UniProtKB/TrEMBL annotation:
Reaction(s) catalysed by this chain's protein: L-proline + NAD(+) = (S)-1-pyrroline-5-carboxylate + NADH + 2 H(+); L-proline + NADP(+) = (S)-1-pyrroline-5-carboxylate + NADPH + 2 H(+)
Protein name from the UniProt record: Pyrroline-5-carboxylate reductase
Gene label: proC
Domain of life according to the entry: Archaea
GO molecular function: pyrroline-5-carboxylate reductase activity
Species whose genome carries this gene: Halorubrum vacuolatum
Length: 268
């Protein structure tokens, strides 16, 4: 059946080069959707073992990427150039680069494939990825791929540094905030497992509400705050704290680092 789908062109062949945290998350996420034939490529045998039950093929041979419709590069930024030097892609292939700070032009200058730059995040694994993608080089095939594992925003490449901070690094900031809520729950007497479940599910539910509900965030906060109730007291404490500043500082620091990284990847 797989062979039929491949020969009829209803299956998109995706090669993922670099199957660590991010490449592995994409591979795991694609396993839950139909229509993708995934080849996992990595030099580290342990990385291939970790994804072998989620991919159709695993190999340490990057030339396997010649068979793909879409080639995803998910190696560390410093390795992108050497990976591209060893790849010989065709003009009818699409190369998706995940590397932070590496410009689309830097990659495009080193391959015949058509290039699109994406800033993904780890939630690809559960189909909840938030990704930013450059308008330049974007095809419906890539839109479908990103849509298969989450939501995406099409942005001008000049916005990639801020996107890297907000949605690329963002999961780490959210994990940190969930942990703070969990710790407060434990301090109040909940078991660690209960506190983690309640805190994480609360963030998940709140995020889902923001995405689906037409009300503004301020209106949603109001909906939780009963007059003379509990939330209003908590919100007073939160508004008087430095919480907003801390989040802004985290995003600004990550954005700044993305710009610094970019300076190392220029052909000028
Ligand atoms: N980790 C994350 O949450 C995110 C990462 N990214 C980007 O994704 C890229 C990968 O990051 P991570 O997955 O965190 O790194 P990682 O270190 O977890 O994974 C990189 C993988 O590349 C493999 N690799 C190294 N050289 C290779 C080669 N020549 N050929 C094939 N495979 C090779 C390594 O063995 C490793 O398994 C980076 O460019 C990063 O900026 C983007 C958004 C989020
Ligand atoms: O920390 C990093 O550099 C990568 C890019 C965004 C998330 N992780």
């Amino acid at each position: 059946m797989l062979l039929n789908a491949l020969s009829q062109g209803t299956m998109t062949r995706v090669s993922v080069i670099g199957c660590g945290n991010m490449g592995g998350a994409l591979i795991r996420g694609l396993r839950s959707v139909d229509g993708y034939h995934v080849t996992a490529i990595d030099l580290d045998p342990a990385a291939l073992v970790a994804v072998e039950s989620f991919a159709e093929e695993t190999t340490d041979d990057a030339s396997a990427a010649r068979e793909a419709d879409i080639v995803v590069i998910a190696v560390k930024p410093s390795i992108v150039e050497s990976v591209l030097a060893d790849l010989d892609l065709r003009a009818d292939q699409t190369l998706v680069t995940f590397a932070a700070g590496v410009s689309r032009g830097f990659v495009a200058a080193r391959t015949d494939a058509s290039v699109v730059r994406v800033m993904p995040n780890l939630a690809a694994e559960t189909g909840n990825m938030a990704a930013a993608v450059t308008e330049e080089g974007l095809t419906d095939e890539v839109r479908d791929l990103l849509g298969a594992v989450g939501e995406y925003a099409e942005v001008d490449e000049s916005l990639m540094d801020i996107a890297t901070a907000v949605n690329g690094s963002g999961p780490a900031f959210a994990f940190y905030l969930i942990d703070a809520m969990k710790t407060a729950g434990i301090d109040g007497g909940l078991e660690p497992e209960q506190a983690e479940r309640l805190a994480a599910q609360t963030f998940k539910g709140a995020a889902e509400t923001v995405l689906r509900d037409d009300r503004t965030v301020d209106e949603l906060i109001d909906a939780v705050c009963s007059p003379k109730g509990t939330t209003i007291e908590g919100m007073k404490a939160l508004r008087e704290s430095d919480a907003d500043d801390g989040v802004v500082e985290a995003v600004v620091a990550a954005e700044r680092r993305s710009r610094e990284l970019a300076e190392a990847f220029t052909d000028e």
